[in-house]
Amino acid sequence: METRLLVLLVCLQVFCTAGNVCDFKEKQHLIQTLTRKLLKATQDDSVPNPSIHIGLRLAKYHNHEMENSYLQRLRKERESDFLARTGPEYHKEPVTGLLALHILALRASCENLDNQTGKQLITQLKRALHSEKEHIATYDKPLSNYYQYSMGILALCINGKKIDHHVIGRLIQAERRKKFMHHDSQCVDTEAMAGLALQCLEQSDFMYTDQLRTDINNTIKSLKKKIIESRSAEGIIGNIFSTPLAVQALHAMGQEDACSGSAEALLGQAEVGTFHNPMALSLLIPVLHQKTYQDIANIDCSDEDNTLTTSHSGLNQLGSEIKVTFMVQNIGSTNNEYEDTVFVPQGSSLLEVLKTAHKEKPKHFAYEIKDSLWGPFLSSVNGITADVERRTYWQILKDRNIHLMEGIADYKPHDGDHIILRLSTW
Q: Backbone dihedral region of 178: left (phi > 0), alpha (psi from -120 to 50 degrees) or beta?
């Protein structure tokens, strides 16, 4: 769940052209409001998220003081852990995507990555990708997932580092073998990230073999076709939250109508507050400012608009109480191992529902959460902990078969909702 991007040194080996992704000229007030909202997220006490910093750095308007302060928080709370990792730690808790994002965030701020710390971070990312590649060879799946694997390749490529052809080959093979799936569903965000990574490789000057370059080119064409075919009549690609990254990937891969239909969908959902999660907003902001992650290679920190300030809008007022019923289920079972009904103020999040349930019946219901870039997620319910090695996780559904698109801190139940917490495999 740790994961999104910006890159390192503007290197001569990589040529990334910006170009216009979408035309939002008539929505500048909305775009500034959303950018202010993302800037305000840097003031939260939650674990700093490099994707938030990247989103701000790809905007047209900046607040250098707040951005620099957030970057220092990122360095203070993340770098020592990254640099201290050895081989066994990569397997215990893979951080490929988070490390890649951190490196991209540094590059987006024009930080020097040729110093000792920068070189060490790059080396650690190479080691992480090597561990991922070896895990794919042995178990037919990466330690993390192919989204993070692709992000690692993208970060190294934009930093001008030649990448082991075996690492690239594993990504190409995964696409051919239709490994970018979650259960039976197509993972558009993984396809988009893989497309961005491979497009960067395709544009690089490194002397990869002719066969590898042919394979890269053919995979890009395949990914582009799949992403285009995933676009609905309303312009949504995959789901609304995967659409911004998909639009970036299509543009990077040379699709002239990359934003066809999707601009209206993104603006419409932004206007009604769908992108209130900072992680989701950090992926949308670059598109609204007509940028893609590949533009990180061309950021010039010496000539920027430094006029952005935070908004001062008040908090939404909570209304009357609502009733929410939730159930706990184990793997392969539709029987409820626990069920309860709680009453919470209207406008409460699902996390607040769980807090209320635990407070009312602490001996019968308990849960644990972990932080991620997308906010907190359930890690344990009633003593049963999700296990990465066994590929289990706590899935959240509404009315038995509707998969929630938002996290527990973002989803706000309605009166009468039935929520299922189900231990599932992925």
A: left
